[in-house]
Amino acid sequence: MATVDALLRDAVERLRRSGSDTARLDAEVLLAAVLGVDRTGVIAHPEAPVGDGAAARFAEALVRREAGEPVAYLRGVKEVLGLAFASDARALIPRPETERLVELAEAEITRRLVEGPREGGEPPLRVVDVGTGSGAIAVALAVRLRRRRMLDEVDILATDDAPDALELARENAVGHAVGDRARFRAADLVPGDEAPFDLVLANLPYVRTDVLATLPVATSFEPRHALDGGHDGLAVIRRLLALLPDVLAERGVALLEIGADQEAGILAAVTEMPGRWTGVVERDLAGLPRVARIKRVERIEP
Ligand code: GLN
For residue 160, which of 181, 135, 179 has the smallest C-alpha distance? Predict the structure, then answer.
C-alpha cells in the first residue's frame, strides 16, 4: 500500500512539472481532502498507509490539477475569514483580498449601531452585497454580526445576475446557519425597489479584459463574467457608481473592492458622479489599494 510520503513526493514532482508554483501545498491540501483530514494530518504522518480507494481519488484530483483546475474547485471548499465556503464553477473562488471588505463593512455597521442615536424600534440597517457570487461577503458578514449579537439590527440582501451563483450563495448561507438571515435575489446590480441602502458592498469583476488571458490558468475555470471588468477593468463598477445616487441612503456608504492599480481610476470615476461625492481607498493586508469607500459629501449645517 502507498504511504502519504510516497504519494506526496510523486504528486509534488508532477504538479511542479505542470507549472504549479504551489505544488507542495496543492498536493498536501488535495491529499488531505481525499483522506478527510486537515493538512496538518498529512504533514504529521508521512508514514501512514493510504488505501487504494483514496489513492485512486487522489490520482484523479491530480490529473485535474495538472490541467489547471483550481484547488478550491477540486476540494469544493475555500476558507474565508476562518469560515469554510462551498466553492465550485458556479461562482468566483473567494479571495483573501475580500476579507478586508468584510472587516470594513463590519466596522462600519458596528460603529453605526454603537454610536448612532438608535433608540428601540428603529428599522434595521440595510445592507446589500451586489454580485454576491458564492455569498462569501454577505454570509461572512452575517456570521460576524451574529457573534456580536448585532444581526437582528441589520437586514442583508445579496444579489447576483447569475441564478446558479445565487444558489451557491444560498447553500453557503444555510451551511453557516444564516439562511434565514440574508435574502438572495436575482438582479442586475441593485434592485431599485429595495432602496435606499445604508451600506452597499460589492466585489464586482474588475480585471481588465486584456489582462484576463495572462492570469494563471486556474482562473480560466472560473466564470469569466465574474472577473471581466472591461477595457479598464472598471466598466461594471462604473455602472454601480451610476446607481449610487438613487440607491444609497443620504448618509450611506459604498465599499467597493478594486484592483491594486485602480485607485486613481476609481477616484476619477467618483468625481464624474452627479452630485457631490467623495472617495477614499483603503489598503489591504499587503498594503495595496483594495477597497474604495464612497459617500456623499456631508452638508455642513449653517
Ligand atoms: N482579485 C481577483 C483576481 O485578480 C479579481 C476579483 C474580481 O474581479 N472581483 O483574480
Answer: 135
